[in-house]
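Ticket #4471: structure output looks truncated?

Reporter: J.K.
Steps to reproduce: submitted the chain below (284 residues) through the standard prediction queue, then opened the result file.
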Amino acid sequence: METIALRNGLDFLRVEPRITRNEKEGTLDVAFVLTKGARVFVERIDIEGNATTLDEVVRRQFRTVEGDPLNAREIRDAAERIRALGFFTTAEVNANPGTGPDQVIVDVNVDEKPTGSLNFGASYSVANGVGFNVGLSEANFLGRGQYVSVNLNVGTDNQNSSITFIEPALLDRDLKFRFNAYYNTSNNDNARFDTESAGIQPSIEFPLNDLTRLALQDQQRQAERRGRRHAGRFLRSFWAGDKSRARLATRSAMTRASPGSTRRAACCCASTRTSRALAETSNG
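Returned output as attached by the reporter:
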């Protein structure tokens, strides 16, 4: 209700729920009472404890700026958004009296924590051999709240690399920009061809309301296969070589068998002529 009232320009409005118990019926009656609060304004917002994180990263979690009417619920919501960043171990937001009776100073005290990580790994398999991987990520790059990640996987046959960059507040607005790029290669002796692929994936995300966001993404990809034509020529040459060797072997076998077959045929012809000559002599 307070949020709706602020959107409609009703400042200093307070909503107080009053609960009445009905013990006989076992029910509760809840009444929301709207009252006009004191006219208090935000004098300034002080941020302390952020040695690395820039003030603007914390300040943009507030929907309230200096000079706006004080809204306690909005201050509590801003404190939750600051904790949700994941950059701090503790984050406390308090409203303290300002220089005047109608002024309030919002104090933000944070305690930073490490936000980067470095990973190493190794693997081994009979099919792919030895592989190594290294990954570097930083969730609060240069204290700007930006996310950067670099990953590299190197193996005997494959190489994969990628980089990711996220800007949570593009142009100082509630627009999240994401950019991802990758480059992969494969060189497997058991495959008929090698592959090489690269691509980029930019996207932008913006809110539709307080609980819904919409992301628009584009993907550009280029892939190449090398060695397919060479492998085809090799296979054709291999099978052609087998056929040629088979023909040569057949011809060689026929050549080796032909002298003996010729001699046997000549002996048969000579024996036939001798038998015919003997038969004619006996008849004469």
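Triage note (M.O.): checked the attachment and the full token line is present. The two ends are 145 Å apart (CA to CA).
Status: closed, working as intended.
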